TrEMBL record:
InterPro entries: Acyl_CoA_acyltransferase (IPR016181), GNAT_dom (IPR000182). This is Acetyltransferase. It holds the Pfam family Acetyltransf_4. It comes from the Bacteria. The keyword Transferase applies. Residues 6-174 form the N-acetyltransferase domain. One of its GO terms (molecular function) is acyltransferase activity, transferring groups other than amino-acyl groups. SUPFAM superfamilies: Acyl-CoA N-acyltransferases (Nat). Gene3D superfamilies: 3.40.630.30. Keywords: Transferase.
Length: 202
C-alpha cells in the first residue's frame, strides 16, 4: 500500500481508545484472538506501555485516522529468548487485502533486524475448514510473508461453542552467529528507524 495520506508512527497511550475499537471486532466476532472480553482502554494503555519498552508498536493512520496497528513483543520472558519476538497485527475490519498488513510486517521485520532480533514468531488460530468466525486468511498471509509452520496444537482453544487449533509459525530474518549479537531495545534505534521511514513518505 502506498497512499499519500498514510502515516506510520509509534503508538502512544492516547491511542488506546482507537486501538480498542479496532480490536473489539476481533474479540467479539472472530476466533483470531482467543480473548473473550474486550480489554478496557486503561488495560490497553498498560499493554502499549509495556510492549513499547523494548519493541516497536506501530499504528497506521489514513487521513489522520488510526486504521491498524502491529507490534513485536517478547516471545518468552527469559533472557535466552531475547533474539526471538512474537508478531501481532490488527487492521480495521474491511481494510484487509490492500497491502497495509504486508507493509506493517515489513516494517516490523526492519526494526527487528536493527534490534538484532533473529527469529520472528506468529501464533495463528486455525480450523481445518474455515467458519464464519475464522477465515484462513491469516494462514495464507503468513505463508506469503515467508513464515514456516513449526508447531500445530489441536483443539486447544474454545470459543463460540467450538474447539480451535493453534499454529506457530516462524521466520528467520538473519543468521545465528556465536556469540549472539547484542539485543537493542527499540528505543535505541527508533530515531533512525522513523527518520528513514519518514524519508520514504510515511
Amino acid at each position: 500500500m502506498k497512499e499519500s495520506n498514510l502515516k506510520i508512527r509509534q503508538a502512544v497511550p492516547e491511542d488506546a481508545q482507537a486501538l480498542v475499537k479496532i480490536y473489539s471486532y476481533y474479540v467479539k466476532e472472530t476466533a483470531i484472538t482467543f480473548e473473550y472480553t474486550v480489554p478496557s482502554v486503561s488495560e490497553f494503555k498498560t499493554r502499549i506501555n509495556k510492549i513499547s519498552t523494548n519493541y516497536p508498536y506501530l499504528v497506521a493512520l489514513l487521513n489522520n485516522k488510526i486504521v491498524g496497528y502491529a507490534y513485536l513483543s517478547a516471545f518468552h520472558p527469559r533472557a535466552a529468548y531475547h533474539w526471538s519476538a512474537e508478531v501481532s497485527i490488527y487492521l480495521e475490519n474491511g481494510l484487509q487485502h490492500h497491502g497495509l498488513g504486508s507493509l506493517l510486517y515489513q516494517l516490523l521485520e526492519k526494526s527487528a533486524y536493527a534490534q538484532n532480533i533473529l527469529n520472528l514468531n506468529a501464533c495463528i488460530s486455525f480450523l481445518e475448514n474455515a467458519d464464519e468466525h475464522l477465515p484462513l486468511t491469516s494462514i495464507y498471509f503468513h505463508k506469503k510473508m515467508g513464515y514456516l509452520q513449526t508447531a500445530h496444537f489441536h483443539e486447544c482453544g474454545y470459543k463460540f461453542s467450538k474447539w480451535y487449533d493453534m499454529i506457530w509459525a516462524e521466520k528467520h530474518i538473519s543468521s545465528h552467529p556465536i556469540p549472539a549479537p547484542v539485543f537493542y531495545p527499540f528505543s535505541k534505534i527508533s530515531n533512525s528507524f522513523f527518520q528513514e521511514l519518514n524519508a520514504t513518505g510515511y
